[in-house]
Amino acid sequence: MKKTNFQFLFVVLLITFISTSIAEGQDLKLTDRAVKDTTVMYKDGNYEGKSRAKYIYEPFWGSIRFTIKNGIFADIKFVIRDSSMHETFDGKYEKHFEGNPEYIQQSRNDWKGVQAYPKKLEGKPDTDKIDAISGASWSYNIFRASVKEALKNAK
Q1: Which of 9, 83, 97, 130 is the S-S candidate for 120 at Cβ 3.0 to 4.6 Å?
Q2: Bridge pairing between strands 87-88 and 60-69
Q3: pLDDT of amino acid 7
Q4: Is 42 in contact with 53 (CB distance < 8 Å)?
Q5: Beta bridge pairs of residue 21
Q6: What separation in angstroms does the CA of 128 have from each of 40, 75, 97, 104, 137?
Q7: How far apart (Å, rounded) are the C-alpha atoms in residues 96 and 65?
Q8: Helix, strand or coil for residue 86?
């Protein structure tokens, strides 16, 4: 009698384990499918955006223009303008930080970002596919916010 109860319990546990494993596998497949189905597709066209990101107390504005063709970003032009000095943030902007090596280095890092982020996005279908460059998060945040502004009408 004890042997029969043990065998019965073993079979019930085995069936439970197998059915749970199968159900978990199906859940993963459903989740994968749901993620694929929520990919954002943008309308083909030319877009422009402008943003300060979270730096609302600074005079810097990111301005971007790009084309979306077949859901892919192309022809990306990105600049950051200093609205108080009426000049573009570029490789020479560090002159404003003369005598402050930390700010000069930060300026150089962010200038690298201004140049690199459009190249990183070129040919991609999604802005989430680009990562920040170490030391260039300021330009990254302005770039991403400018792209987001431009994409408001692209969905």
Answers
A1: 130
A2: unpaired
A3: 63
A4: no
A5: none
A6: 11, 18, 32, 29, 15
A7: 27
A8: coil
Chain mean pLDDT for the chain: 84
| Cα–Cα distance measured from residue 126 to residue 129, given in angstroms and rounded to the nearest whole number | 6
Got the DSSP string for 88-134? E--TTGGGGGTT-HHHHHHHHHHHHHHHHHHHHHTT-S-GGG--PPT
Q: Encode pLDDT of 105-145 as tens digits.
A: 999 999 999 999 999 999 998 888 889 999 999 999 999 99
The yes-or-no verdict on residue 102 having pLDDT over 90 is yes
- State how far the Cα of 17 lies from the Cα of 12, in Å rounded to an integer: 9
Separation between Cα atoms, residue 18 and residue 40, nearest integer Å: 36
CA distances to 28, 29, 37, 42, 49 from 33, rounded to whole Å, are: 9, 6, 6, 20, 32
Q: Is the separation of the CB atoms in 54 and 141 below 8 Å?
A: yes
- The residue type of 149 is E
